Amino acid sequence: MRITKILMAATAGAFLLAACTPPEQYNPNDPNQRTREGAAVGAGIGALAGLISGDTAKERRNRALGGAIIGGIAGGVIGNNLDKQAAELAASFDNGAIGIINTGNELIVRMPQDILFATDSAVVSSTLRGDLQTLAASINRYPDTTVQVIGHTDNTGTAAYNQTLSERRAQSVAAILQGAGVAGYRLQAYGRGESEPIASNYTAEGRAQNRRVDIIIRPNR
Fold first, then answer.
1. Which of 15, 57, 75, 176 is the one with CA 20 to 30 A from 189?
2. Contact 122/165 with Cβ under 8 angstroms?
3. End-to-end CA distance of the chain
């Protein structure tokens, strides 16, 4: 019985992995991609819960079916909200340098440091405050989410200095979002310094990509 449940869980787990599209394969021209994937993953999770909770074959079938239906609905709602919010933000931002990454589980709004701050400064540029206010309005239209603001730097300078600078910058962005109406309990601000690069620090282009603030909008599940 235990081995059977493990095999069923592994099968369902494989289905879930297959249902997710990596962020780099996300098609921004398909506004419903994450809705479909959310429904598929939710259904898989619900079915998995049913499969491993029943004691008899009939119980497992019934619970898997019920879990798939409930999970599919919940996952589809989450995926649909991510699709809608990503499309709205893409149409609303004035600055073409801001990136929006829909992972299927969360939205990452990526703001390059060089458009947000002057060198060695944690004061947000006046030209970006409008985009942050637009982001705050979007966050408030989707209240069932939490938001992490994470500052990142390249490896120029000492690690300790970069860590402190990244924290100050994240806090500055979070303060503007809160000032624009986002509830403080929904916001968390962190600095990661130079520890999480997304490109090589051996080139100027790579260092520019690493200098960023990521605003992660995560649905409450």
1. 75
2. yes
3. 31
H or E element at residue 190: strand 187-191
Q: Are 173 and 124 in contact (CB under 8 A)?
A: yes
SS3 82: helix
CB 147 within 8 A of CB 139: yes
- What is the pLDDT, as a whole number, of residue 14? 46
Helix axes 2-19, 33-53, angle to 10 degrees: 180
pLDDT reading at 136 higher than 80: yes
Question: Phi, psi at residue 67, to the nearest 5°?
Answer: -65, -35
- Radius of gyration for the chain, computed over Cα atoms and rounded to the nearest angstrom: 21
Sheet holding 99-102, edge to edge: 99-102, 107-112, 212-219, 145-152, 187-191
**pLDDT digit string, tens, across residues 162-201:** 999 999 999 999 999 999 999 999 999 999 999 999 999 9
Q: Do 104 and 205 form a contact (C-beta atoms < 8 A)?
A: no
In the structure, what pLDDT confidence band is assigned to residue 94 with cuts at 50, 70 and 90? confident
The torsion angles phi and psi of 180, rounded to 5 degrees, stand at -90, 5
Q: How far apart are CA 25 and CA 180, in angstroms?
A: 33
CA distance 128 to 182: 17
Residue 42, beta-bridge partner list: none
Residue type, 59: E
Assessment of whether the complete model's pTM goes beyond 0.70: no
